[in-house]
Here is the input.
Amino acid sequence: MSTDDYPMATVQVDSEQFASKQRLAIYEIVNGMLNLVADIQATMSLRPEPAQIYTLIAISSAQKFVRAPNQSDFTGHTPLPVDMIGTVSRRRISDITGIPRETVARHVRHLMERGLVVETGVGKLATPPGVLMDLAPTGLPERMMRETVTLAQKLVRLKVLEIKVD
Here is the structure.
């Protein structure tokens, strides 16, 4: 069955409901985010600041692929080819997070020693190919998906999100 055979769904914010239930909705969103962050930290044995840096590097590594026009061959957990992996610099990490550059550099060195981050060129940081495949046995990717679904369900129950199926 092709993806064209499935019904399309649109998810929208109900602004009135959100305004009336904003505190509850924001609580659920932030709680879900904290659960995700705590799971990443625990699974990867990282403290908060290195986890934030690692997550930013991981997102940057995937960004080039996500923005590519043809992604169909690599939508699972198959490692991306090197030319589809994006990078980020220590300076950019510092600018985005507000963490001092020297601290970023120290955490990056530690992440590199653990094999969680690689330098693909001068100052170009990325996660090594195969991260999703390596994480699959830990269950982290699926737990992240389940946490996201749980959050969406809570927001639908609060009626701040509406799902419309075409």
The longest helix spans residues 22-44. Residues 136 and 142 are 8 Å apart (CA to CA). The chain has a mean pLDDT of 92. The domain at 3-71+80-165 is CATH 1.10.10.10 (Arc Repressor Mutant, subunit A).
